[in-house]
Amino acid sequence: MPSDTPDSLIPYDEIVQEALRAVVGRVLGEVESTGRLPGEHHFYITFKTAAAGVEIPRHLSERFPDEMTIVIQNRFWDLKVGDDGFEVGLSFNQAPARLVIPFSAITGFVDPAVNFALQFQAQVEEGGPQEHEQAENDHPVAEPADDGSNVVSVDFSRKK
Predict the structure, then answer these.
(1) Lower CB count within 10 Å: N or C terminus of the chain?
(2) Per-10-residue mean pLDDT for the chain, 160 residues long?
(3) Total structural domains in the chain?
């Protein structure tokens, strides 16, 4: 029996990524419909700032040219969730900003209140991802756990 796995003609990796991003949309949609975060829930959302469809103020794209993490916790407004993404108002250094983020641009979603995390594949350029600071839009209560509990990471890299 050969050890080489044949290439799939079904794009399973894309289908799974799309389904996992739909989880993020559903969670944000629940927050939109109630107008608040339930209990102690709050979210760290990491996204590619240069991805198609991302709209953020120029000073943020200059500060975070590759990737940015925002926090949806205490101070956010006008959360609107659509089929393809969401928009939200956040404050950065006391200045209000409106961000439009397609679900396809998201690379990570964490809810540290219940130790839940999703990581998404991203198209990485040759230099690899650049280190980035967290956006200072909110002051989170706790950092996400690094123990891997309840983390779903999907990597469809092929061994050749």
Answers:
(1) N
(2) 74 90 95 93 96 94 94 93 96 93 95 95 49 56 49 48
(3) 1
